[in-house]
């Protein structure tokens, strides 16, 4: 009996020892695995060159410090457009590449933009001079950091510090004059007549050599721009610089509002042709809604607002 007790005790002791060793081994392997995973998570990936560049320039600031006054087509600005660049510490950024997105020319009536990269000087200033501008425009010039060619970045998907300034060039219509083929319709879309408002508005802008086109009757309203130009060219040649054509109509009938006031909406669809070449160099659609205490005052307000916008677009777009 004692032998059996001794045997069983020995067996239990041995089994316990074996179980204890196996458990300890499993725990050590698990801890080692966790430690390995922790080391893997704790080692972040190195930032890419693109990330480093974005992080650096995000603290930069750009500001136009010199913006020349508007000029007329065919002239030069009195000075260059200058931009000041400060780094993240607020100090001038020297030898920093600034990209200027500027109006370069026109394709038909559309302004075409191009880019020029200019380095800042020792004072952190980059200057862009457009030279002689042979087109009219009322737009902006933009400056922002240039992206190095070795980086896989583009301006459409990133947000960079930028600066903008007005780029304003008036047409030379005041010097060259114009003939008008602009017809104004009544509320019912009928009875077109030559637009006195556009004529008067341009005169107020200093265009003294101006009048209705020699061929200026309703029979030509639906004619092509080319035909209207050629017919009038036979009469005036290049005595006038431009032909301005188009229509002014009601977008919809004048409405009476719940509060008793009236609302009138007008639309001007205009174009401009250079008499010397016959090219269409200006096209613009302008809408304006006016209001008043009665029908007449609403229409008057709409005509006044539309005329101001339309004339402005001609002066800076022709």
Topology, element by element:
Layout: H1 2-42, H2 49-57, E1 61-66, E2 71-72, E3 75-76, E4 81-86, E5 97-107, E6 110-119, E7 125-128, E8 132-133, E9 137-145, E10 163-170, H3 173-176, E11 178-184, E12 193-194, H4 196-204, E13 210-212, H5 225-236, E14 242-250, E15 255-256, E16 262-274, E17 280-292, H6 295-315
Parallel strand pairs: 2-10, 11-13, 11-14
Antiparallel strand pairs: 1-4, 3-8, 4-7, 5-6, 5-9, 9-10, 11-12, 14-16, 15-16, 16-17
Order of SSEs = HHEEEEEEEEEEHEEHEHEEEEH
Q: What profile does the largest beta sheet have?
A: 7 strands, mixed
**Could you say which structural class the secondary elements and strand pairing correspond to?**
alpha+beta
- Cα(first) to Cα(last) distance is 122 Å
- What are the low-pLDDT stretches, counting only 5+ consecutive residues below 50? 1-27
Helix content: 25-40%
Radius of gyration: 37 Å
Mean pLDDT: 88
Task: Describe the model.
With 318 residues, this protein is of the alpha+beta class. It has helices at 2-42, 49-57, 173-176, 196-204, 225-236, 295-315; strands at 61-66, 71-72, 75-76, 81-86, 97-107, 110-119, 125-128, 132-133, 137-145, 163-170, 178-184, 193-194, 210-212, 242-250, 255-256, 262-274, 280-292. Strand 15 and strand 16 form a beta hairpin. Mean pLDDT is 88; it is low at 1-27.
């Amino acid at each position: 009996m004692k032998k059996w007790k001794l045997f069983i005790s020995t067996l239990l002791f041995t089994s316990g020892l074996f179980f204890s060793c196996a458990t300890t081994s499993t725990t050590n392997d698990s801890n080692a695995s966790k430690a390995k995973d922790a080391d893997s998570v704790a080692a972040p990936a190195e930032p890419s060159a693109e990330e480093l560049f974005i992080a650096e320039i995000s603290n930069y600031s750009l500001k136009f410090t010199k913006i020349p006054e508007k000029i007329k087509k065919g002239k030069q600005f009195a000075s260059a457009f200058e931009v000041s660049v400060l780094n993240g510490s607020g100090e001038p950024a020297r030898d920093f590449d600034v990209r200027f997105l500027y109006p370069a020319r026109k394709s038909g009536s559309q302004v075409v933009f191009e880019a020029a990269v200019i380095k800042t000087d020792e004072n952190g200033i980059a200057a862009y001079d457009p030279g002689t501008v042979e087109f009219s425009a009322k737009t902006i010039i933009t400056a922002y950091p240039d992206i190095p060619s070795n980086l896989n970045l583009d301006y459409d998907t990133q947000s960079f510090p930028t600066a903008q300034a007005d780029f304003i060039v008036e047409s030379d219509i005041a010097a060259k004059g114009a003939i008008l083929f602009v017809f104004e319709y009544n509320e019912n879309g009928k009875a077109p007549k030559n637009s006195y408002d556009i004529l008067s508005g341009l005169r107020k802008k200093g265009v003294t050599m101006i009048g209705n086109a020699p061929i200026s009757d309703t029979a030509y309203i639906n004619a092509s721009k080319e035909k209207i130009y050629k017919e009038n060219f036979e009469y005036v040649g290049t005595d006038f610089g431009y032909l301005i054509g188009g229509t002014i109509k009601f977008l919809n009938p004048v409405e009476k509002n719940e509060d008793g006031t009236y609302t009138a909406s007008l639309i001007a669809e205009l174009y401009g042709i250079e008499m010397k070449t016959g090219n269409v160099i200006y096209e613009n659609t302008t809408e304006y809604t006016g209001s008043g205490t009665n029908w007449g005052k609403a229409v008057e307000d709409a005509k006044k607002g539309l005329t101001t916008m339309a004339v402005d677009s001609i002066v800076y777009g022709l």
